[in-house]
Amino acid sequence: MSTKLSRDFYARETLLVARDLLGMHLIHAGPEGEQVGRIVETEAYKGPHDLAAHSSRGRTKRTEVMFGPPGHAYVYLIYGFWNCLNIVTAAHGTPHAVLLRGLEPVKGITTTSHGPGLLCRALHIDRGLNGADLLGDTLWLEKPTRYRPPKVGRATRIGVDYAGDWAKKPWRFFDKDSPYVSTVSAAVRKRALAPDQGGVRAKLARK
């Protein structure tokens, strides 16, 4: 039986949460029914000192949820088009969060999900879910019954060059064996996901 992640899971040190989210399932019981994806890529943000974090700009209407209890969704819009889903972590009042960057389809996902905006589009996650309690019955995370341990890799975060030295932090975590990581090339992903290539997917994903 799958186990829904507890509040205590999210209340831990943010880098540990970011790493341990790999291999967990994200579930949205929304307009398309229950959709499920396996998390394969995350990024940690540790404001207010981390200049790459939205909370480095202080407590605002946009970032209020980041200062609240752990285990809630922080959903924001970028480029006027893409929604991005973050998981609020650490202690209440500490504005930390983990961005979900890549999902491996498990159930009910019919479009691409290798990128933070793409995975939200695929699971019909928008700002209407901002602040949602992840212990509820609409949007939640769980450890699947058949948990598949990831081969964890680390790298710097993406798109945060403006953050100076903070951009050099190796706070992006990913499953080396998954072709659904956002930085995997389109050619490698296509070969890895071809129906007759199932036996070599892991090998191709690492290239």
Automatic annotation (TrEMBL):
InterPro entries (alphabetical):
Formyl_transferase-like_C_sf, MPG, MPG_sf
Please name the top-level EC class of this enzyme. Answer: hydrolase
Family membership noted in the UniProt record: Belongs to the DNA glycosylase MPG family.
Under Pfam families, the record lists:
Pur_DNA_glyco (PF02245)
Query: What is the E.C. number?
Result: 3.2.2.-
**Would you tell me the protein name for this molecule?**
Putative 3-methyladenine DNA glycosylase
Instruction: Say if the entry is tagged with keyword DNA damage.
Output: yes
Q: Does the keyword Hydrolase apply?
A: yes
> What keywords are assigned to this protein?
DNA damage, DNA repair, Hydrolase
